[in-house]
Amino acid sequence: MTTATVFNYSYGPRTGLSTQPAPLPMRRIVIVGGGTAGWMTALILARSLIERGVEITLLESPAVPTIGVGEGSTPWLRGFFDSLGIEEAEWMPACHATYKCGITFEGWSTKPGFERYFHPFASMLDNLTMKQFVHNADARVNGAAVDAHPDRFFIAARLASGCRAPKAAESFPFDIWHGYHFDAVLLGQFLHHKALERGVRYKSCHVSHATLATDGSIAAVCTREGETIAADLFVDCSGFAGLLIDQALHTPYVSFSGNLVNDAAVALPTPIGAAIPSQTISTALRHGWAWQIPLTSRFGNGYVYSSQFCSADEAETELRRHLGLLEADVPARHLKMKCGRVTRHWNRNCLAVGLAQGFIEPLEATALLFIQQTATTFVEFLERGDLSEQAHERFNERVNAHFEGTRDYIVTHYKTNTRTDTEYWRANATNMNLSDELKALYALWMSGKGIAPPVAQQTLGKGYPVMSWYAIMCGMGIFPDIADLRPPSTQESRFRLAEIDNLLERSSANYPDHREALGRIAPRRTEPTLQVYFW
Ligand SMILES: Cc1cc2nc3c(=O)[nH]c(=O)nc-3n(C[C@H](O)[C@H](O)[C@H](O)COP(=O)(O)OP(=O)(O)OC[C@H]3O[C@@H](n4cnc5c(N)ncnc54)[C@H](O)[C@@H]3O)c2cc1C
Q1: Which atom in ligand 1 lies closest to the alpha carbon of residue 74?
Q2: Are 317 and 212 in contact (CB under 8 A)?
């Protein structure tokens, strides 16, 4: 059986350095930008550096609002809060947060039986059914008529479909690996407050430009208010503007627009009902997809689309129709976005984090993970005292690999779609602008030899674990046509779906209703752990 971590790296709490930390080569850090990226980075840096005498100042323009979206996370966000010692009981109610067991993809495939599927965050309990899932998936790719739809095999899919929380009753010691949903503006305010409490300095001012030193590094940033602010390190968290990494340092940028064509979004809130779902729903529309994110106070909804294929007005009308809001005068927010990444996230004495470093469209809600990963990895380098050119290279290679791997997974959602209703979906399905790794992975899948070993060894499918690759390929129904399936052999049909159903049904009974669980979030009863699950 293949062994694979559910996610490939850990950005959770570190157990501390075993050796004496190297002397810090910097005394003063300036972060430009007070969005989620700015405050998350400030807190991650503050945790290691403030007590060692480093001064961290965050500058935020009073004239440029934060992007104000970004309300879903991966499970890694738990590691962020754990590493800062911030309990769910404190931050979740303050941010109207809910639990997220995964994402349902609705209407991306037209194949019978595969019109919707759930991408779970896999957990320890899934060890009991993962083997059966992979076995059935491999058998079905090879033409056997066995059930390989992912929803049949994961506890998280059960919990999500029943609006249950991933927090087990005390008598059942299996937490489910989960992400969160939250109000982006409230999260920003919460992090701002926490960062100030932990010694980060804040200045409301508009950075007009940066001055460069003779070696090409940033010497200072100058503000409209007339100040010149020098530092050893500048962190660019200025959003899509990329004030420092792009406008000052002209760092080359790799666009992903060749294979991720969405470049705009429109967002609208709706009231939350009596039941609070514990999942994000992503519904394919005519020229993109709509998100539905449940908070305790409202649903966040939005439509991510490509302006090559439809106008902002058309997108807004389609979203309103989808939400039943055609007649309502709830105002919509329109946003532009660009997908791609800078080549050097750490360039000279500038670190870019958040939208300034790059963005992959929000389909799998990975942007906060990039922020966390970039800032945490940077602190690791800093603590080793390693700021050499080679260190820059290693750092940038690592962050770039994570971007590329994630991009390939997101691309797969589009590439495997079978919709034919619009040019948008047809163009996505026929787009051959794919990385070599992705082409190899698809070829291996179609060969029926199983993709687990090379994905687990990270020779293919960087960024996402084996389980996610199986979930997407099976969920989209990338199998021989039903008419071409043959009866399975005894070996192929050796797992009884009824037994798996029964197991999952009994297990899910140990998880409470989501709304009820949110109403009694309490300080944790055991030490937090970020476990690595194997299958
Ligand atoms: C449609 C959409 C949906 C998304 N959904 C998700 C999701 O579900 N999950 C997820 O993880 N991510 C999501 N994201 C991404 C997420 O919103 C961002 O990664 C996150 O909010 C971080 O943004 P940021 O802090 O980099 O930039 P911003 O929020 O844009 O903040 C930029 C900051 O820079 C400051 N600034 C700008 N110019 C200046 C200046 N001249 N001087 C001083 N300060 C300046 C601004 O005042 C602001 O404080 C989504 C993005 C989009 C577009």
Answers
A1: 11
A2: no
Strands 201-204 and 55-60: parallel
Question: In the chain, how long is the greatest CA-to-CA distance?
Answer: 78
Distance 359 CA to ligand 1 centre (A): 10
Q: Which residues on neighbouring strands pair with residue 168, listed in sequence order?
A: none
CB-CB contact of 104 with 116 (8 Å): yes
Alpha carbon nearest to ligand 1 atom 17, residue: 70
pLDDT, tens only, 375-421: 999 999 999 888 999 999 999 999 999 999 999 999 999 999 999 99
528, pLDDT greater than 90: no
Does 111 qualify as catalytic in the annotation?
no
367 in contact with ligand 1, CB cutoff 6 A: yes
CA distance 107 to 113: 11
Q: Are 364 and 406 contacting, i.e. CB atoms less than 8 angstroms apart?
A: yes
CA distance 297 to 148: 37
Task: Check: CB of residue 59 under 8 Å from CB of residue 223.
Answer: yes
Q: In angstroms, what is the span from residue 126 Cα to ligand 1's centroid? A: 34
Q: Which of 410, 414, 423, 416 is nearest to 286 (CA)?
A: 423
H or E stretch at 36:
helix 36-49
Crossing angle of helices 76-84/36-49, nearest 10°?
40
Cβ-contact 58, 230 below 8 angstroms: no
Bridge partners, 103 (sequence order): 119, 280
Query: Please, which residues have CB within 8 angstroms of residue 526's CB and are 6 or more apart in sequence?
Result: none
Does residue 243 line the site of ligand 1, with CB under 6 A? yes
276 pocket-lining for ligand 1 (C-beta < 6 Å):
no
Query: Which residues does residue 55 pair with via DSSP β-bridges, in sequence order?
Result: 28
Phi/psi of residue 346, nearest 5 degrees: -115, 105
Q: Model pTM?
A: 0.94
CA distance 66 to 34: 7
